[in-house]
Amino acid sequence: MGPPDLLSLALLSLCLLVLVVEPHRAYGSSRGSFGLNNGPATPAANGICATSVTIHGYKCKEYEVKTQDGYILNMQRIPEGRDDGSTSTGNKKQPILIQHGVLVDGMAWLLNSPEQNLPMILADKGFDVWIANTRGTRFCRKHVSLDPGQPEFWNWSWDELVSYDLPAAFDFVFSQTGKKIHYIGHSLGTLIGLASFSEGHQADTLKSAAFLSPIAYLSQMSTALGVVAAKAFVGEITTMFGVAEFNPKGQQASIFLKSLCNYPGVDCYDLLSVITGKNCCLNSSTVDLFIKNEPQSTATKNMVHLAQTVRDGVIAKYNYGRPDYNLMHYGEARPPIYNISNIPHDLPIFISYGGQDALSDVQDVQLLLDGLKFHDVDKLMIQYVKDYAHADFIMGINAKDIVYNKVIQFFKNQL
Ligand SMILES: *[C@@H]1O[C@H](CO)[C@@H](O)[C@H](O)[C@H]1NC(C)=O
Ligand SMILES: *[C@@H]1O[C@H](CO)[C@@H](O)[C@H](O)[C@H]1NC(C)=O
Ligand SMILES: *[C@@H]1O[C@H](CO)[C@@H](O)[C@H](O)[C@H]1NC(C)=O
Fold first, then answer.
1. Atom 10, ligand 3: which residue's CA is nearest?
2. Residue ranges of the domains in the chain?
3. Which helix (H) or strand (E) holds 260?
4. What is the pTM of this model?
5. Torsion angle, CA of 113/48/185/145, rounded to 10 degrees?
6. Under 8 Å CB-to-CB from 149, ≥6 apart: which residues?
7. Catalytically annotated residue among 187, 196, 254, 360
8. Over pLDDT 70: what percentage of the chain?
């Protein structure tokens, strides 16, 4: 199968989050609503610290961070390990910023036991851990003048995560700690990191970066997508959702998915492994927690932009779909590209990718590595995990031994 045309990452991600982890509930024939929890979101007073961190005996503090375009983002800080009896160690610890992927929020990192989840492992290893959450997710539905009921609130794509959300998080952590920051991204968190660093946004605040299950080029996903995604058009999504919220738990999304699953020959149950790859190492209790808390809303425009990335095979800014519109926004008929080769060649980079990962396809990772071919050889560390698929990197019960310890070693080498 050649590169797919007009494929939708929207669908992919949705399927990743809905299907992959819960095929039975998500597509069980007797269920009308995909089995997702449609109840009201946990209020911010019961934020991520309270529900997922302090209950395990860790200190945790909630922050609000404002972006330059007025979004108010929520962050969590786990300043030290659970058994770190010492009184405040001041600013001695090395800060790490952790960035989640699309359609989830920072809680996705915290669903496994403290011995298994990345933020707590890092805290126990002596790091000052900061968890970022992007605009539109449960605790980031705030803006200085807009509210989520207005289309304008959702008028953004991952370009804005690159230009506003990530810089806001970096600047804030830097202002609080005075130290250059280690970055860890998963999935879309890798794309916005790579794009942002290629534009030189965090030159003064970034110390090193770890990319787990990297997503940059997406055009080789053909096998992963199989039959269903080929039917999902960018246009179809926009027509249905307009410039507005894309709520994967909402009725429209559910209708949209169901319609795709009704295509002849499409068996959504089997798509589990077709779409994300076979996750080797998930705990079913963790998966249940995941279903309760994720997926989260994003902007339809963000989904469209991701679909464009799949379709066009380049890492570029949002395409307004018409040369004159692009000209108006960018002064060029085509959207400007993010050139991965412009990431500073001496930036220490760790990349871990999985042999079973259908979203971060091995061939696409090769394209990414090709973009990094002029990187200083001793600054680039690459790990290939044969059995891992997309979700194993955030929820794998053995991710500590296989991936996280390597990340920690990599960070500790950057002194
Ligand atoms: C979204 O933002 C663009 C500029 O980036 C503007 O041209 C457009 O009118 C906006 N649309 C809405 C619905 O706010
Ligand atoms: C799976 O999660 C449950 C609930 O947190 C836990 O009791 C169990 O030990 C976990 N299993 C593995 C293999 O980590
Ligand atoms: C990206 O930048 C590199 C040098 O930094 C250059 O050789 C290459 O042509 C650029 N790629 C594109 C597509 O502009």
1. 339
2. 1-415
3. helix 251-261
4. 0.86
5. 170
6. none
7. 187
8. 76
Residue 390 designated active-site: yes
Report the phi/psi class of residue 200: left, alpha or beta, with left for phi > 0 and alpha for psi in -120 to 50. left
Ligand 3 atom with the smallest distance to the CA of 340 is 1
Which numbered atom of ligand 3 lies nearest the CA of 339?
1
Q: Whose CA is closest to 287, among 111, 41, 114, 47?
A: 111
Peptide bond into 248 cis (omega under 30): no
Chain segment 85-134, per-residue pLDDT in tens: 665 555 589 999 999 988 889 999 999 999 999 999 999 999 999 999 99
Closest Cα to atom 1 of ligand 1: 155
Ligand with minimal distance to 154 CA: 1
Assigned fold of 1-415? Rossmann fold (3.40.50)
Q: Using CA of residue 326, residue 201, residue 199, residue 106, what is the dihedral sign?
A: negative
Residue 309 confidence (pLDDT): 82
Is there a catalytic annotation at residue 357?
yes
Q: Where are the alpha helices (DSSP H) in 101-187?
A: 118-124, 158-160, 166-177
Is 254 an active-site residue? Answer: no
**In 3D, which of 319, 372, 362 has the Cα closest to residue 342?**
372
CA distance 407 to 390: 17
